[in-house]
Write a structure and sequence with these properties.
- With 253 residues, this protein is mainly alpha-helical.
- It has one domain.
- The chain has 9 helices and no strands.
- It has helices at residues 15-37, 40-86, 91-105, 111-124, 129-140, 143-158, 162-211, 217-221, 223-252.
- Helix 1 (15-37) crosses helix 2 (40-86) and helix 5 runs antiparallel to helix 6 (143-158).
- The longest helix has 50 residues, at 162-211.
Length: 253
């Protein structure tokens, strides 16, 4: 039997959507370049040069976002699984009931709903739950799911206290996840500040161009002015890269 399994570390399909979105972002970026340089040629060149990097960055953003959604849905699944285990169901039966709960509470394209259906289909075709879960964990490319899979594999192969150990594992993971959410809330505030600082210079330059064009005339009409603009843009881009790397490292930690 063929299972429609998703590799969450790569993008499969949706090329048209990614291309269209990347093109829109690229056009916005070239418009910003025009505001800085007041040159159609420079703007068009930047659009041609930066399209591929923008497409690559946007694709990675979609992958990260999809994995974030998957992780949230996974912890919702763990809550349902834990409730089923607490009333005395075994791990397999708890997953069957979790599947029904996910069907009732979430739309058809919910990642975890689809993954539990695949897990149970594999089990019906002679593949063990631990092997099916290990396959999902590998495709998820998420440490939380991989850790749960490893702990379940150990519990399933070395002890008879599977359900009890799974509940303890879920408790520990949920506690760690709640702490991560608190940290992510603080990081989100810093991200919003970063976004504001990102768009502020653009709005300031646009404001002066519209209401006081003479203010920037020297920058647009001389080689020295173009050099100043280029250096300013380079420093601004460097600051953005460093800020995002710092936030990214905090999130990884």
């Amino acid at each position: 039997m063929i299972y429609k399994e998703v590799d969450y570390s790569v993008m499969e399909g949706r090329d048209a959507n990614i291309l269209l979105s990347s093109l829109v972002i690229d056009m916005l970026f070239s418009s910003i370049i025009y505001i800085f340089y007041n040159s159609n040629i420079v703007s068009m060149l930047s659009m041609a040069i930066f399209f591929k990097p923008i497409k690559r960055y946007y694709t990675q953003h979609i992958i990260r976002r999809r994995k974030e959604i998957l992780e949230l849905q996974f912890f919702e699944y763990l809550s349902i699984l834990k409730s089923n285990l607490q009333v005395g169901e075994n791990f397999l039966e708890s997953n069957k009931k979790a599947k029904e709960s996910l069907k009732q509470n979430f739309e058809k394209n919910n990642f975890m709903r689809n993954e539990i259906e695949i897990l149970l289909l594999k089990n019906n075709n002679g593949i063990s739950i631990k092997d099916a879960f290990a396959s999902f964990a590998k495709r998820s490319d998420l440490k939380s799911i991989q850790s749960f899979s490893k702990l379940y594999t150990i519990a399933a192969t070395r002890t008879n206290r599977i359900e009890e150990l799974v509940q303890e594992t879920i408790d520990m993971m949920q506690e760690a996840f709640d702490k991560d959410k608190e940290i992510n809330t603080l990081i989100l505030e810093k991200k919003i500040e970063l976004y504001i600082l990102t768009v502020l210079p653009v709005f300031l330059i646009l404001f002066f161009r519209l209401f006081s064009p003479v203010y920037y005339q020297t920058l647009y009409s001389s080689i020295f002015g173009r050099i100043v603009i280029t250096i300013s843009l380079a420093l601004f881009a460097l600051a953005q890269i460093l800020a995002r790397k710092i936030i990214g490292r905090i999130c990884d930690y």
